[in-house]
Amino acid sequence: MKLDYLHDGSADCPILRLSEFPQSEVTSLGDQTVKLCAGTLDHVTVNSMPGVVTVHGAVLTLVLAAADEGVVRLDSGQFECRLTPGQWCHVADLLEPFCAGSTGSQWLDETSNISLLITKSGMF
């Protein structure tokens, strides 16, 4: 799975994009979001997951939060996606088609000015 940050180049930017993944990697991501939803994890560093390749040093941590803040940029290349358990359940639901082999794209979060996108092909 590729993780990259697109600051500009499209009207949809800025975007954190997850792309070019085998089904096993998106299934692992879905499993982690279910754990955030259930409260059995309080954060997941996406870059630490097997198979994740970072483009230009982007680092993404998924965080169980008290309020839905969406994607927050911490510093150069480091981001957190801060969502409540209910929103992580929603993200888990949005990932299900990809876990089943979907090849499309889906906005996972658009709460803040930086959106989180998953796309099999890299296109959006």
Index terms:
124 residues, Gyrase A, domain 2, 5-stranded mixed β-sheet, 35% strand
CATH class: Alpha Beta
Average pLDDT: 93
CATH architectural arrangement: 2-Layer Sandwich
Q: How would the global form be characterised?
A: globular
Main sheet record? 5 strands, mixed
How is the quaternary structure best described? Answer: single chain
Percent helix among the residues?
25-40%
Tally the structural domains.
1
Low-confidence stretches: none
| Rg calc | 13 Å
In total, how many beta strands? 9
Order of helices and strands: EEHEEEEEHEE
Report strand order across the widest sheet: 4-1-2-9-8
**In percent, how much strand structure appears in the residues?**
25-35%
Q: Do you know the CATH topology? A: Gyrase A, domain 2
Secondary structure category: alpha/beta
Query: How far apart are the termini?
Result: 16 Å
